[in-house]
Amino acid sequence: MSTALITGASHGIGRAIAQQLADGWNIVAVARSQSELEALAHDISARGGRCRALALDITDHAAVSRALSSLDVDVLVNNAGIGIIKPVAEMSVEEWRTQVALNLDAMFYVTRALLPGMLARKRGHIVNIGSLTGRNPIVGGACYSGTKHAVVGFTESLMLEVRDAGVRVSLIMPGSVDTGFAGHGKGAPWKLTPETVGRAVRYVLEQTDEALISRVELRPARVESSK
Ligand SMILES: NC(=O)c1ccc[n+]([C@@H]2O[C@H](COP(=O)([O-])OP(=O)(O)OC[C@H]3O[C@@H](n4cnc5c(N)ncnc54)[C@H](OP(=O)(O)O)[C@@H]3O)[C@@H](O)[C@H]2O)c1
Questions:
Q1: Residues forming a β-bridge with 124
Q2: Is position 203 annotated as part of the catalytic site?
């Protein structure tokens, strides 16, 4: 069976992606929280799948290179991300760096570690989880939306760079997902569920060989009225 590595798999969207893919791929689940990853691996093996829990801070370039460079991975889902929604005048340098380090730099580190193997095998699929804020600016999103705009440029440039070498690259841009992300509480019925994003990833991966879904914009069917 092929292998899919998912970053940010300990909870939220990444966990749901791992669960959606677990009957078609052996999963390598990456995040910092060993205990949450082990709970996911236990869940997946109870349903007959295979999941390796790999605790790793993906903003640590040397650690990523050590842990991932020798892995043969067919599918990489770059999902881990953080959202600190704040006016620029109030954002600290540390908050800025934390977002850029995870949302952008770490996506490069993980891709850089796994892409050479895909190119050597002439097959692979990289799915990057962007955001609709990578297209539509939002108030307080100068940094977050900025990183997600950069994810669009990174992903679509990479797609053009490697598609003739047998590696497919796709971008999924969700709207609001009910994970408690960016300090929003959980439980909003109008938001997308993490499982819906997981199904979208699966759909993108299951296309026939001649087809590449390069971009998906996935938004809630209706938006909660603020009135
Ligand atoms: N929720 C939304 O409304 C929404 C909308 C559009 C796009 N997105 C995007 O979807 C992705 C996932 O969002 P989410 O809502 O699922 O977020 P989440 O619930 O906060 O989960 C984030 C994941 O990233 C992991 N992570 C954080 N820092 C890490 C690090 N340094 N190294 C490795 N893993 C790290 C976390 O695990 P640990 O803490 O265990 O490391 C967790 O598994 C993000 O890229 C986000 O921008 C979310």
A1: 167
A2: no
Rounded Cα distance between 147 and 158, Å, is 16
Mutation test residue for ligand 1: of 5, 10, 13, the one with most atoms within 8 Å of CB: 13
Any ligand 1 atom below 6 A from CB of 14: yes
Closest to 40 in 3D by CA, of 22, 58, 57: 22
Task: State which residues form the domain around 80.
Answer: 3-218
pLDDT above 70: percentage of residues in the chain: 99
In a domain, 227, yes or no: no
Q: What percent of the chain has pLDDT over 90?
A: 96
Whole-prediction pTM: 0.98
- CB of 50 shorter than 6 A to ligand 1: no
pLDDT tens digits for range 77-132: 999 999 999 999 999 999 999 999 999 999 999 999 999 999 999 999 999 999 99
- What are the structure tokens assigned to 168, written together? 């497919």
| Distance in Å from the first CA to the final CA of the chain | 50
Judge whether 224 lies within some domain.
no
Q: What is the CA radius of gyration of the chain?
A: 17
Is the beta carbon of 176 within 6 A of some atom in ligand 1?
yes
For a ligand 1 pocket test, name from 10, 154, 197 the mutation site with the most ligand atoms within 8 angstroms of its C-beta: 10
Query: Based on the structure, what is the number of domains in the chain?
Result: 1
Nearest CA to ligand 1 atom 8: 131
pLDDT tier, 225 (very low <50, low <70, confident <90, very high otherwise):
low
154 lies in some domain: yes
Q: What is the CATH number of the domain that holds 188?
A: 3.40.50.720
* C-beta of 11 in contact with ligand 1 (< 6 A): yes
